[in-house]
Design a protein that fits this description.
The chain has ten helices and 14 strands. By secondary structure, it is α+β, with helices and mostly antiparallel strands. It folds into two domains: 11-232, 3-Layer(bab) Sandwich (Hsp33 domain), CATH 3.55.30; 238-291, Alpha-Beta Complex (CBS domain Like), CATH 3.90.1280. The longest helix is centred in the first third of the chain and has 18 residues, at 43-60. The radius of gyration is 22 Å and the shape is elongated. The two termini are 43 Å apart. The structure holds zinc ion. Zinc ion binds next to loops. Zinc ion is lined by residues 234, 236, 267, 269-270, 272. It comes from Vibrio scophthalmi. This is 33 kDa chaperonin. Redox regulated molecular chaperone. Protects both thermally unfolding and oxidatively damaged proteins from irreversible aggregation. Plays an important role in the bacterial defense system toward oxidative stress.
Length: 296
């Protein structure tokens, strides 16, 4: 164990060695707050983004390779899209789009209408995988559990909580999954399920992994691995925006410049706008032609 104790914005993995069940817990405050601060999200949508965020971090932790996972909710309700993207380094970002008023206690189905969940797994090397499931279940936890039942066929349970602790927004969750080697039993899994069901919001938001695991499972042997920090990080940059501009037809770009005086790219994930005036655009195209990709 490291000397520095990180109780938040951290992912912990553990193993019930004698029961052939693996576990994960994620606790987020700042990383979650940064995502919901980028727009004036309705309360219910803030919670939904928190749940998606927890699901994404728990899922990326199951990745056995370098890459990213994107979990998207799409629907025809007041919320048309809610998306969180995370990678093996636990760098996460997210955004949602909605229209009109949404009640504070709106359910998943009231927000999304007729919708579905899209999970995209993109390994850094290799093929992209996409799974689509309907919104079966009352809430996101049940929808994700259904996804696991259909795709991984490994007994998996999730607990996701969002709320406040000391006046600050928190999102946290736990996952248990039977090991794929077939040595785990249904009884042992159920035993751990029952114990995990007793977890309280304030314990999940505020306790260190070691203490929480002891409180919940003190009769069972748990091996806790090194914690991994979770950070809000958007991969967008001025350089990438410039690279996108030069892929557009020059005449089209000139029309935009004539009309608006500059070409602007807005990043939906973090809210940053990258603006290029006429001479900056000129420079982009000249550099592209000369093969020099550097953008100053
Ligand atoms: Zn961005």
């Amino acid at each position: 164990m490291t000397d520095t104790v990180i109780t938040n914005n951290v992912l912990n993995r553990y193993l019930f060695e004698d029961l052939s069940v693996r576990g994960e817990m994620v606790q987020l405050d700042e990383a979650y707050q940064q995502i919901i601060a980028s727009k004036e999200y309705p309360v219910a949508l803030q919670k939904l983004l928190g749940e998606l965020l927890v699901s994404t971090t728990l899922l990326t932790a199951t990745l056995k390779f370098e890459g990213s996972i994107t979990i998207q909710l799409q629907g025809d309700g007041p919320v048309s899209l809610a998306v969180i993207n995370g990678d093996h380094d636990q760098k996460i970002r997210g955004v949602a789009r909605w229209e009109g008023d949404i009640a504070d206690n709106a359910t998943l189905h009231e927000m999304m209408g007729k919708g579905y969940l899209v999970i995209t797994i993109e390994p850094r090397k290799g093929e992209r995988y996409q799974g689509v499931v309907g919104l079966e279940g009352e809430n996101l936890t049940q929808v994700i559990e259904n996804y696991f039942a259909n795709s991984e066929q490994l007994k998996t349970r999730l607990w996701i909580r969002t709320g406040e602790l000391n006046g600050k927004a928190h999102a946290a969750g736990m996952l248990i999954q039977i090991m794929p080697d077939g040595t785990g039993s249904a009884e042992d899994f159920e035993h751990l399920e029952q114990l995990t069901n007793t977890v309280k919001d304030e314990e999940l938001f505020g306790l260190e992994a070691q203490e929480l695991l002891y409180r919940l499972y003190n009769q069972d042997k748990v091996r806790l691995f090194e914690p991994q920090p979770v950070v809000f990080h958007c991969g967008c940059s001025r350089e990438r925006s410039g690279a996108a501009i030069i892929t557009v037809n020059r005449t089209e770009i000139n029309d935009i410049l004539a009309e608006e005086g500059s070409v602007s790219l807005h990043c939906d994930y973090c809210g940053t706008t990258y603006s290029f005036n006429e001479s900056e655009v000129e420079e982009l195209f000249i550099n592209a032609q000369s093969g020099d990709k550097t953008v100053h």
